[in-house]
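1st attempt posting a full record on here, be nice pls
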Amino acid sequence: MARKFVLAAATGILGFVLFAPGVRADDYTWIGTTGAWSDPANWDQPTPPTSGDDAHINNGGVAQISSSAEACALLYLGEAGGENGTAELSGGALTAQGARVGLAGAGVFTQTGGEFTYKGNIRLGNDVGSTGTYNLSGDGLLHSSGPWLVVGYHGTGTFNQSGGTVSGTDRVYIGEDTDSIGTYNLSAGAIETGIEHIGVYSGGSGAFTQSGGTHTVFSDLYIGDGGGSQGSYMLSGTGELTTINEYVAKFGAGSFTQTGGTHTISNYLFVGSQAGSSGSFTLGGTGQLNTYEGNVGHYGVGLFTQSGGTHTVTNALRIGRYAGAIGTYSLS
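the predicted structure (as tokens):
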């Protein structure tokens, strides 16, 4: 790149100001099989990557992280079609701008301990045909100071959480875009997010299955968000879900099945929120549902079927609220 010179003149003094070109991040490629991230012999560079370097693991190898202060810019696992890569975090810390776990190929990130902090976004299953899997257990912490965790962007993404904590992210998308399939399985541990979308845009399909642990959404939970999307949530066992507002089918198709656990919505529940939407809520077993206000068929089609459990409404329950809406509540 040619250097740029700027000529400046003031009060009879002639000066030159030199602007050097920006420094580009280096690409670090994993050449080892299974080995330590911190071992330079596993990289094609003389040192492990730093916070300004992109890390690529595409040769079927496994990078094991157990030291503190490991870092990279973007982490790629399974970059091209047919490629695959794995990272394992058991202790210490990894800091990155973000990660593409299955960019166009297959990627796996397994965390049993330590802390993974990302500042941008993580995508599991980025491109059509890709697969990305994140396994979180033990006392691992996945923490974000950035905007997104995407489980299934255009490909297939799976997040399995049997322990640990997910915190800090502003939004979680599960089955975001066309052709995407996103699945989140929570059996223990905790996840906290600002807003959550399950089945986001047309052609996106998302599912959240919770049998234990705690799930806190500090604002809105959308299940079947955009027109043409599909979203589902299954709550059972000892799971605890807390939201402010919940939309089971905002513009798309959404379903919620609760057979156990505790489900608290501090403001509004909408089942079939907008025109063209189709939502269903099934409550049975030992499930406990607590809402301030319920709307079954707000502008769209809503069906609430209760064969067991307890449904407590503090303010009002509205069935078929506005013109054109169809609402049904079946209690047995």
